[in-house]
Amino acid sequence: MSARDNDWDGVRLHVVTGKGGTGKTTVAGALALALASHGGNVLLMEVEGRQGIAQLFDSPPLPYGERKIAVGLASGPRPGGDVYALAADPEEALLEYLAMFYNLRHAGQALTKLGVVDFVTTLAPGLRDVLLIGKAAEAARRRKRQRHVYDAVVMDAPPTGRIGRFLNVATEISGLARVGPIRGHADTVQSVVRSPQTAVHFVTVLEEMPVQETLDGIAELHDQAHGGLQVGGIMINMMRPEVLSEAELAAARDGTLDSDELAMGLKAAGLDDSRPLAVDLAADLAEHACAVELQRSERRRLAAAGQPRYDLPLIPDGMDLAGLYRLAAELRRQGAA
Fold this sequence. Notes:
Strand content: 15-25%
Low-confidence stretches: none
Helix content: 40-55%
Strand order of the largest sheet: 3-4-2-7-1-8-9-10
Structural class: alpha/beta
Largest sheet: 8 strands, mixed
Number of domains: 2
Distance between the termini: 12 Å
CATH topology of the largest domain: Rossmann fold
CATH class of the largest domain: Alpha Beta
Mean pLDDT: 85
C-alpha cells in the first residue's frame, strides 16, 4: 500500500491492458468506480467492440454515445461521482472527426454507405487506432466552462501483446500520412498519450504466462522505440487467500501433515469416515502449498519490475456490481485511485 493517498495524481487517461482471461475489463470498471470516489465524473471507454462494459454493469448494449451507467464508490459521507461509459467505434469516430474538423459529417455518412470508411480503416489499421485513442484523448482534454468534463478517462484497451503498437500511433500512421491533417491529429493524440497525464496499467494473475506477458509489455513500453509512455500499476487480480500458516504450508508441501490430527478435526466437524477424507485433504493441501509457492515466485518476478502493485481478491461467486464495488474499494484503499 502506498503512503500517498493516490499513486496517480495528475493522471487523466488511464489505459488498462492485460492478457485475455485476467479480468482486464472487470479491473477497468472497478478502477473507474474508484476514481469517481473523489466526486468527479469518470468516463469508462472500450475499444474492442465486445460490449464487455455493458455486460459487466448489466446494462443494455452501449451506443456510440456517453451514457451514465453507475455512481462511483462513496468516500465517507461524500457520495461518489457519476461513471459514464462509451463503446468507441472507429467508423463513428471518423464521422465525428470529419464533422469537428471539416464540417463534413454528411459527406462522411455517404462514404459510410458506400463502404469506403470500413475499407480505409481495414486497409490502414493505424488510422483505426488513431481514431479510437483520439476519442479517449479528446474526452480527457474536453472542457466546459473552463472545467474538465471528466476528471478521468479509463480505457479498456487491447490485450498486452498489442498494447505497444496500439499506443504508438505516430509511428503506425507515418506510412499513411507524413504531413497534413491526419498526421497532425495523430501527433496531437500522441502528445497526450506520451504525457504525464496518461498511465498504462497492467492486469495479471499469478500464473507464469500472464506474468511473463505483463513483464514483456512493461519492457516494451520502457523500450526506446516507445519512449515516453508512462507505465502505471500492476493490478494482480483474482488473488486467493492463503489459508495455512508457514509451518502448515511447509508440512503440506513435504507430505508431513499429521493425518491423525486431520482425521480428528474432520470428525469434530461432524464428518463420518474421516480417515479416507483426511488422506484426500492432505493431497489437496499439498497441491495448495505448491500453488502458493508458485504464486509467491510470480509475485517476486512482478516486484522486480519496480511498479506499484495492487492485490485484488478473487470473487468466488462470480462478478456482479457488489463485487465491482469491492474491487474498487480495494484499489482506493491501496492508493491506485
